[in-house]
Amino acid sequence: MGSASEAMEMMLLSFVGPAVQSTWDLSSHEESLITSIVFAGMLIGAYSWGIVSDNCGRRKGFLITAMVTAAAGFLSAFAPNFTLLIILRGLVGVGLGGGPVLSSWFLEFIPSPNRGTWMVVISAFWTLGTILEASLAWFVMPRLGWRWLLALSALPSSLLLLFYFMTPESPRYLCAKGRKGDALAILEKIAQVNGRKLPSGVLVSDLHIELGEKCTALEEKELISPRENDSENPEKLNTGDNMCTHTEEQSKNHKSVSYKDVFITSFAEFPGLLLSAATVDKLGRKMSMSTMFFLCSIFLLPLVFHQPQSLTTGLLFGARICITATFSIVYIYAPEIYPTSLRSTGVGVASSVGRIGGMICPLVSVGLIHGCHQTVAIFLFESIVILSGISVLLFPFETRGRQLRDNVACST
Q1: Minimal CA–CA distance to 286: which of 353, 240, 234?
Q2: What are the tens digits of pLDDT across the range 276-322?
């Protein structure tokens, strides 16, 4: 439900911007700011909640992000003016920045052989959220308006709070913190719920002994070096993902919102998930992402020419399949790189970098498209997608089948 609620809050930006622009007679730059401020908030939130999650626990990070997102999302429906709406949507972005907390938490429960497949499964809830939001907007916007859409879209985040007391802390996180007793208690409860017994042996903490997880000195150096954390940061791919997705929406609705087209292209995420599930463990993370980026660029290129609306929808459908597959795989790859002791912080920082694309994209795409420069916008994003695909091939290591590490310090 966390992924679904995050997807709904992101998806509604495609519908709320044009509606608010019409209501308050905003300029194109002010309309773009409604989306950019959310990504700015996510940039701040991703870093902040990552630190909270690594120091205070995954559960507490989960609780705070859900509270901030739900409260700010609901209150934004009652914003009396543009300034207050921007402030509240920025707070929504701060809450949504906690997405890496959920992915890190889930990843730490999954064994290595099935990790890629199960991370794709949880991504399916993001897809359900986008389809639900497109359906909700199709019904609500023409009848009740954008304020009702904002209020109703905040409900899933509110419902998340009901699941807080049922959510266990990550045993791997507890073990990395030296809390072996708490970790064992959670594992015993999980085993009891599943009608199984825990394997024989003694649970040990990574603070005292390495759990058979070895890395080379080169890998450790690359993990913590500035090059890995900046120029080859996997979440920089989100810059391409965010910009590509927003461009798809703008190319469909720069004159008027076509709820039908948005609804149809949202369904493209399902085959995208199937494609990522089929390739992530067979081709590996790097090859899968790179291939999807290059295929996406092929689907986007014909958009520079005029074509029937049905063909445009079909091309965007194909591009959405590829970018969804890439988005799913990068959220598997990034948490696998970082050790448990700083996984949420690492992915949070990386995700913050990715949000820069989301901030810049509305300012560029809306301005260019409103200025009748759609061809320039398409070529710009086409270049970014291709460069992202090339960047993937330059990543220093593949994580397919590799055990998760709990501390930065590994035996050589």
Answers
A1: 234
A2: 888 888 888 899 999 999 999 999 888 888 878 888 888 888 888 89
pTM of the model: 0.70
Side-chain-side CA neighbours of residue 104 (13 Å):
38
Helices and strands, number each (H, E), in the chain: 20, 0
Domain of residue 354 covers 2-168+213-393
CATH number of the domain to which 83 belongs: 1.20.1250.20
Which tens digits make up the pLDDT trace of 382-396? 888 899 899 899 988
Confidence of residue 206 (pLDDT cuts 50, 70, 90): low
**Separation of alpha carbons 174 and 206, rounded Å:** 10
H/E run at residue 295 = helix 285-300
Helix, strand, coil % over all residues of the chain, rounded to 5: 75, 0, 25
Tell me how long the chain is: 412
The pLDDT confidence band at residue 235, using thresholds 50, 70 and 90, is very low
* Alpha helices, DSSP H, located in 76-144: 82-96, 99-107, 115-140
Distances in whole angstroms, Cα of residue 156 to Cα of each of 6, 62, 99, 124, 399: 9, 14, 14, 16, 33
Tell me the C-alpha distance between 34 and 47, whole Å.
21
List all residues 6 or more positions away from 343 whose beta carbon is below 8 Å from its beta carbon: 54, 104, 107, 108, 335
Contact 386, 294 (CB under 8 A): yes
From the CB of residue 260, how many other CB atoms can be counted at a distance below 10 Å? 12
Cα–Cα distance between 10 and 16 in angstroms, integer? 11
Q: Tokens in use for 310?
A: 């049905």
Q: Indicate whether 409 belongs to any domain.
A: no
In angstroms, rounded to a whole number, what is the distance separating the alpha carbons of residues 90 and 86? 6
Taking alpha carbons only, the member of 316, 318, 317, 344 closest to residue 331 is: 344
Nearest residue to 324 via CA among 5, 9, 1, 11 = 11
**Look-up of token digits 């899968």:** 288
Nearest to 247 by CA among 364, 123, 151: 364
**pLDDT of amino acid 60:** 82
Is 40 inside a domain boundary? yes
